[in-house]
Amino acid sequence: LCSADLGLLIQMYTAIGKCHCNLLQAELGNESFEDALWILENTPSACDLNDRSIVFPIYSGMFVLIRGGKIKKEDMRSYEQYLVQCFVDQAELHGDPIHLCRALAMQADTLNR
Asked: Which residues contact 9 (CB under 8 A, 6 or more apart)?
């Protein structure tokens, strides 16, 4: 799977997740977001992605679901900290200070609670 196709696949899963959330199907939306992250983390061509900003809507969508109490995990605190660290890592790889500031703000909010 080349990086261009990987980008399209991630965008597709993100769009599906957003659609489920818009239809008030939070669990299905979260599954799609998690699938997109799993693909990103387990595909060798992920390191060749030119535009990492395509992953930021995944984190945004998941945090909306978490903050809205729609996602239930056994250790919610650790899960949220893991997600926010992944968001910061991706923002650092992307290199745009706007995305990095947003990720760091989300991390500060998460660690503050």
From this structure: 1, 36, 39
What residues contact residue 43 under an 8 Å CB cut-off, 6+ apart? 1, 6
Structural contact between residues 66 and 76, judged by C-beta atoms closer than 8 angstroms: yes
Number of C-beta neighbours around residue 83 at 10 A: 22
List the alpha helices (DSSP H) in the chain: 3-22, 26-42, 56-67, 76-94, 97-112
Per-residue pLDDT of the chain (113 residues; tens, 9 = 90+): 888 899 999 999 999 999 999 999 999 999 999 999 999 999 998 888 888 889 999 999 999 999 888 888 888 888 899 999 999 999 998 888 999 999 999 999 999 87
pTM for this predicted structure: 0.85
Q: Which string of DSSP letters, residue by residue, matches 64-78?
A: HHHHTT----TTHHH
